[in-house]
Amino acid sequence: MTSTKFRLPPSLPYPITFLSTSVNPGQSVKRGTALLTYSFDFLIKQPELKKERRIGTWESTVDGIVESWLIKPGAKITKQDAEKNPVVTILEECAHPVQISGMCAVCGKDTTITDYIGSSDEYRASIRMTHDSTGPTVSFEEAKRIEKETAERLLNARKLSLIVDLDQTIIHATVDPTVGEWIAGGQLYEQRKAEREAKAAQRAEKQKQKEAQKAAQKAAKKPKFNSIVEESEESSDGSSEDSDSDEEDTEEGPVNPNWDALKDVAKFKLGPDGPPMPNGKQHEVLLGDGGCDYYIKPRFVLAHMSFS
User: Fold this and answer.
1) N or C: which end of the chain has fewer CB within 10 A?
2) Is the distance from CB of 129 to CB of 136 less than 8 angstroms?
């Protein structure tokens, strides 16, 4: 059994005046049982503008036993008061403090069911514990308990908890797949550029060797007939070299203008951290191959800092 304090919902016509309770401490209540009665001013616009006093009731959203009332009849309650101060304590079987994919992790109840009251138990655990939309969620009270236990554990171990907000502070981070496409295009451009430069260097080396051979042949002072034959062979070799050069020097189109800014971007992949989907495939629709690529880039100031 769990003792839970409940606040009035924000949907009531505030400001309201608490008139009376409908159940006494120790009595059992069911979902939909009227807990209290209140009054409020209703504004009538026709035929003339005037206020009319009306009566309303607030129904229980859980099954349990009323332990105590935290307000007294005659109290005036504003919307801000209702958000801050609970009005009743109810002892219930399970408060559904931890939920995963629409199911209570404590009792196994389906918390997505909505009845005529218009609310479900999903709202009772609204704090996400992970960045994943299908990950576990906890209630405000459970989050406070976890935080308190963590603080006590750190104090007993004489340690501190360091929380660093990295994104947009010392690094830029994104999961936009367009960045990956730009990086792949830039890397392909650099690869082909290096291949062209290597081929150009090879052609230059071959040309240098041929010129050295020509100089050696002239220095040998061979017969005139052989010189004529060699000159014809050299001219044919030169024509083929020019044709090869024309084929090798084909330039590619311009590289992505963002490539210079992407050269220092690092990449890593994280798998899904939520529970398995009902069909056994984790986040297939959202993550495709079961992971998400993150792209990290140091901010300008950090990239140019010197640590000594």
Assistant:
1) C
2) yes
